[in-house]
Specification:
The complex is a heterodimer. Chain A is an alpha+beta fold. Chain A contains nine helices and eight strands. Chain A has a four-stranded antiparallel β-sheet. Chain B is mainly α. Chain B has a single domain, classed as Four Helix Bundle (Hemerythrin (Met), subunit A), CATH 1.20.120.450. The chains are: A alpha+beta, B mainly alpha. At the A-B interface, helix 4 of A face helix 2 of B.
Chain lengths: 188, 202
């Protein structure tokens, strides 16, 4: 659970007394490779920190699946819009590898924010980060060429190539696996 | 969370040991499934009492950790004792007290509790507010422990040393009765958990 504390403290300071209140609400959840963590149409109840493993977020499209993001090593995970609105998710969240998440239930987060106002601020900062991330991705998709998108992602998350299957990265970059392979070969 | 009740097997009459073990394992599997589903619920719900003098879900779990946990410890000890002799009997005939107490503990086929009982002081879940979610995790761990012991029982048999009951050494259960009584006790309290969650939603 130390990961939860260190992750929260990247955004807001926590006193030991606050941490004693925060800690019991978090729990470990484990998923095998390929398991659906949150299915499309299911309400997301959990906000998670990735303790280990890699996950992909995808949306079904034209009988296929489009990757819209990944989570791994100490990053956030979850279907955030469903979590916020408590409505059925339009996305699926799947474990690409064996996964351990440290999670807090939405009802518990609400309860915690009432007891520890610092957590309210933490939630706002996370939301801001998510909005910036989404905006960056939108700009990249609308303005950059395939090669520029490839380079932008490589610069931002160089470890992605080692962690995620190429077909998922190609889908995330909105290009065919063939184009992705070509770009990758050229970059070497 | 839902579970079809009224499914607890009637395993206290004389029956083939292998059938008894199969029935107990099937019930335990369902109990474990139900307990794991509780982990998907928020802590605030698990800690909420439906009425001031009624237990929360976590308090029920902690009660089971204390009471059923006693039998897990003693059953495990019996199977691990190198001096203990087990013989694979073909038919289990419950002891008088073991059979009677298991029948009393078992919910009816339609999920009613026949005889409400008051809890012994030592089994009151006083630690639940401190243990919080750990009480549920310990309960799940205990159910897994019973599953593993039943696998051992399937190999080595259930005719062995008597198991000291929670009432003390004056009352000792046959091994099969200790399993049956405990699993019936869990069945009873998992029903209580279902009722608790239903009351909280109402």
């Amino acid at each position: 659970m130390q990961l939860v504390r260190s992750t929260i403290e990247r955004y807001v300071p926590l006193t030991d007394a606050e941490w004693d209140l925060v800690r019991p609400y978090w729990r470990e959840r484990s998923f095998g490779r390929g398991a659906l963590i949150t299915d499309v149409g299911q309400v997301e109840h959990w906000f998670s920190i990735v303790s280990s493993g890699v996950q992909r977020m995808y949306v079904p499209h034209d009988g296929d699946e489009v990757c819209i993001g990944f989570s791994y090593g100490h990053s956030w995970s979850g279907v955030f819009d469903s979590y916020s609105t408590r409505t059925p998710s339009r996305f699926g969240l799947q474990a690409i590898t064996d996964t351990v998440l440290l999670s807090i239930h939405r009802d518990d987060m609400d309860d915690l924010c009432r007891k520890v106002p610092t957590m309210e601020r933490f939630g706002r900062l996370i939301l801001e980060q998510l909005v910036v991330g989404r905006a960056t991705r939108e700009i990249e998709l609308l303005t950059l060429s395939a090669e520029q998108r490839y380079r932008a992602v490589l610069e931002r998350s160089p470890q992605l190539l080692q962690l995620v299957p190429q077909k998922d990265i190609a889908s995330y970059l909105r290009m065919t696996p063939e184009t992705f392979s070509r770009l990758r070969a050229r970059a070497r | 969370m839902s579970s079809a009740r009224g499914r607890a097997p009637r395993y206290v009459c004389g029956m083939r040991t292998e059938n008894l073990i199969d029935a107990l394992r099937a019930t335990l599997d369902k109990q474990l499934q139900q307990a794991r589903a509780l982990r998907e619920l928020p802590l605030v719900q698990l800690e909420q009492r439906p009425a001031p003098k009624k237990w929360s879900v976590l308090e029920v779990c902690e009660h089971m950790n204390l009471s059923c946990g006693h039998y897990l410890v003693h059953l495990r000890r019996a199977y691990e004792d190198p001096r203990a002799r087990f013989t694979p009997g073909t038919e289990h005939r419950p002891g008088f007290w073991g059979g009677m107490l298991t029948r009393t503990m078992q919910p009816t086929a339609d999920g009613r509790i026949k005889m409400p009982m008051s809890t012994l002081r030592i089994f009151e879940p006083r630690e639940a507010p401190l243990k919080r979610l750990d009480a549920l995790d310990q309960f799940i761990h205990m159910l897994v422990g019973f599953q593993q012991l039943l696998l051992v029982a399937a190999q080595r048999g259930m005719e062995g040393p008597r198991i000291i009951s929670t009432l003390g050494p004056l009352l000792r259960f046959k091994v099969a009765d200790a399993f049956s009584f405990t699993i019936a006790h869990q069945e009873r309290h998992l029903l209580q958990i279902e009722r608790t969650l239903k009351a909280l939603k109402a």
